[in-house]
Design brief:
The chain is α/β, with parallel strands linked by helices and 221 residues long. It has nine helices and eight strands. An eight-stranded parallel beta sheet has the order 1-8-7-6-5-4-3-2. The structure holds D-xylitol-5-phosphate and zinc ion.
């Protein structure tokens, strides 16, 4: 499978976001990863649908909206209408509400014609989201605890990537997107890809490098 790189705009300078989006596209990014934080599910607050709406006309790249928020079902409409191409929601935020909430939220995302995905934190077994694999266009495995960029990759996640790819193959969805988010560097990207991930989120690795195009192409090698 070809590797796709999804730079996370969490690490960008918000005062020049428009230019940044264009520069990411010119540098070979495959998706734009938008980290939405609500100050409750995770400590920081980042941005809402308005950001997605404003960057939508600036790029042809898919907007990959990662919702780190409580009650995600209440917000789907805003992000779908703002132009998200894919929306991912956290297993943990859904499980708190009810056993069926994750399934319902994924179905709601699909009802807007938007791709959907489920996310698990590093301490949640990937098996917990196996029941929703058939509904998902993508699964997102967190390789740091969500909330901040620039953290260190948790190596135990590599085994979870393998399990996720194996299970996707076993249910006839071998080409499903498996995204890894947090602490992806030039030093561990190969291990992550070989375990079966094909979408790598990269925040600080891209934004702290002087040559974004080169860093993005090296993450794929
Ligand atoms: C963490 C966010 C990540 C983060 C990745 O809560 O979901 O997308 O920005 O940043 P790096 O690549 O710096 O770990
Ligand atoms: Zn993210």
């Amino acid at each position: 499978m070809t590797t796709k790189i999804a730079p996370s705009i969490l690490s960008a300078d918000f005062s020049v976001m428009g230019e940044t989006i264009k520069k990411l596209e010119a540098s070979g990014a495959d998706l734009i990863h938008c980290d939405v934080m609500d100050g409750s599910f995770v400590e920081p607050i980042t941005f809402g649908g308005q950001m997605v709406k404003n960057i939508r006309p600036l790029t042809k790249l898919p907007l990959d909206v990662h919702l780190m928020i409580e009650h995600p079902k209440t917000q789907i409409k805003f992000f779908a209408e703002a132009g998200a191409d894919i929306i991912t929601v956290h297993y943990k935020a859904c499980k708190k509400i009810s056993d069926t909430y994750l399934k319902e939220t994924l179905a709601l995302i699909k009802s807007y014609g938007v791709k959907c995905g489920a996310v698990v934190n590093p301490d949640v077994p990937v098996e917990n989201i196996f029941p929703v694999f058939p509904l998902c266009d993508m699964v997102l495995l967190m390789s740091v605890f969500p909330g901040y960029g620039g953290q260190k990759y948790i190596p135990e996640v590599t085994e979870k990537i393998r399990k996720a790819r194996e299970y996707a193959l076993a249910i006839g969805k071998g080409d499903m997107d498996i995204e890894v988010d947090g602490g992806v560097t030039l030093g561990n990207a190969k291990e992550i890809r070989e375990a079966g991930a094909n979408v790598l989120v990269a925040g600080s690795t891209v934004f702290n490098s002087s040559d974004w195009a080169r860093t993005i192409s090296e993450l794929k090698k």
